């Protein structure tokens, strides 16, 4: 029996017409029993040599993985980012790769706005103090009085821009591939964004070119007291430089949903000026359902197009 691997930490395989079609076509589904992000060796073990299709999470899909999974033909990422997939290696091994960029966009955008509001009004700090029998009267800031600088104006970034504008915040953006003015946003160079923005929000993919885009040098160019939000990818920020800038007081606050190494147990946990969440950007019930349905549909289409499954993809 041919094998389909679902490597995400969770996935609802019920009430999914595409998966039902694959099972009825003779496919056997194997899930991630660890219920967490898999290591490279664990991915290799789960795929074996008999998996032909995969619904993937954020685990490393490397040349070594593809060399081991000799019959793998289709990868469908349940999510937007593809930086965990060695795309050149996948192409070399004849593996088609799909993703779901639109499905999680609203959920990530809403979490981003939530983190901005939480940072501005010091909600987490107030909550922690109240639980230690204090009654803090901590003064925050109005969202409407801020200039939000968005780096990356794709599926998520444009939503963050529109939601920020709904709060009457000024919005500027930098994107070398998309004209921000098409979304009613002022276009600026990156250095100008650093200098003008009160809140900087990252919404771009992680690549070798964007590794530590926010480092000690770029952070030093930001307005004193500014806030950094990252719901994109952890490698975009030099975490040590961020920690130091918060401790020194140059940055006011920061909020991270993503980290260079996950799960994260590093020194940022001790920094009271940081709001930390555990990569939950897409984990809104409605968005997650859309992601899973779209990922399964993409897998089915890929397997049909590869000639491994008979039928039509619109089942």
Structure description:
The structure is a single chain. This protein has 315 residues and is an alpha/beta fold. It has 2 domains: 2-103 and 285-305, NAD(P)-binding Rossmann-like Domain (Rossmann fold, 3-Layer(aba) Sandwich); 105-276, NAD(P)-binding Rossmann-like Domain (Rossmann fold). It contains 11 helices and 12 strands. It has helices spanning 17-24, 40-47, 63-68, 87-92, 105-120, 123-130, 155-166, 190-196, 216-220, 239-248, 285-305, and strands at residues 2-6, 27-31, 51-56, 74-77, 96-98, 147-151, 170-174, 186-187, 199-202, 226-230, 251-256, 274-276. The strands form 2 sheets. It has a 7-stranded parallel beta sheet, sandwiched between helices. Strands 2-1-3-4-5 form a 5-stranded parallel beta sheet. Helix 1 packs parallel to helix 11 (285-305). The longest helix is centred in the last third of the chain and has 21 residues, at 285-305. The mean pLDDT is 95.
Present the secondary structure layout.
Elements: E1 2-6, H1 17-24, E2 27-31, H2 40-47, E3 51-56, H3 63-68, E4 74-77, H4 87-92, E5 96-98, H5 105-120, H6 123-130, E6 147-151, H7 155-166, E7 170-174, E8 186-187, H8 190-196, E9 199-202, H9 216-220, E10 226-230, H10 239-248, E11 251-256, E12 274-276, H11 285-305
Parallel strand pairs: 1-2, 1-3, 3-4, 4-5, 6-7, 6-9, 7-8, 9-10, 10-11, 11-12
Distance between the termini: 22 Å
* Spatial strand sequence of the major β-sheet: 8-7-6-9-10-11-12
Please name the CATH topology of the largest domain: Rossmann fold
Q: Would you count the extended β strands for me?
A: 12
| Shape estimate | elongated
Q: Calculate the mean pLDDT score and round it.
A: 95
Classify the secondary structure makeup into a structural class. alpha/beta
Total separate domains:
2
What order do the helices and strands follow?
Answer: EHEHEHEHEHHEHEEHEHEHEEH
Helical segment count: 11
Roughly how much helix do the residues carry, as a percent range? 25-40%
> How many strands, what sense, and barrel or not for the largest sheet?
7 strands, parallel
C-alpha Rg (nearest Å):
21 Å
Give the amount of beta strand, in percent. Answer: 15-25%
Q: In CATH, what is the homologous superfamily of the largest domain? A: NAD(P)-binding Rossmann-like Domain
Q: Flag low-confidence runs.
A: none
CATH architecture of the largest domain: 3-Layer(aba) Sandwich
| CATH class division of the largest domain | Alpha Beta
